[in-house]
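G., the chain you wanted modeled:
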Amino acid sequence: FKKNKMIKKISTPILITGAKGFIGSNLLRKLVYEGYETNVILKSKNKCWRIRDILEKTNIIIGDLNNFESINKIINKLKPKTIFHLATYGAYEYQNEIEKIKKVNLDATINLLKTCSKQGFKTFVNTGSNSEYGFKKKPMKETDLLEPNSYYAIFKAATTLFCHYESISKKLPITTVRPFHVYGPYEESTRLIPTLISKLLNNQNPPLVSPNVARDMIYIDDVVDFYLMIASKQSTKGDIFNLGSGCQKTIKEIYFGISNIINSNLKPKWNSMNHRSWDQTTWKADMTIVKKRFKWKPKNNLKQGLTKSINWHRKFYKIP
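Predicted structure as tokens:
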């Protein structure tokens, strides 16, 4: 990470939920690097591979967001002023238990926000999802009709609407960020970019869908910087912001982007795997509101992000 002098002082204490996850772990790393004292709520210390090396540099609190009494005690003691809420479940195809998806996304958010509201806070950043929009034939805009097409998308949308209502009705500084396709260090190994990098580095053909399937890609460092920028504002109430590059890339462009960087001579085998329900040829964030409001745009283009991802992958997985 590089020191970000543009970020204003963020109010402390800082609380992060979902710190074991992809975005949450990178956000925690950045805050620790910047010298902030951080607090994270974990249900357990299992599966902490992303943050195991920095566990001693943050305050770990064992608690269950679905247990209101437990969370209420934690929040009453901690009294956080900045909350980054990234705890989630259901984004992967195998995570399909409807009750658990509802509990982890909607019910946990209600519990957390209810007790945080009693204590008062400077900013609460909720993490939504681009999947809330459903399938669109044009760039997705924050004001679009939500047409969720999975249990995960349904409860993510419900959580966003809940946060929006609480913010507007009670004048609370709550903002929802809707990330698009985030990639980079500590990403789940089964996702698109890590799979392509791993296979191509090992001179193996990765399974591929149609070359025309598209996604709006954004590198993790830009995502983290956006979260910190939003948290430093402390004046946004009920706002919902897309977090993407505003420029979609096809699987073909992504594949050859990685292939060219590592000088692979493999020929892609398109349509060697079935399309998933979320594979679309149009998937792009409309970033107009963000650009107008904050004059913000990602610092890393696809080539820069892929190069950094490949370098990290080689080092972390010890691949020559």
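The chain has a mean pLDDT of 95.

Shout if anything looks off.
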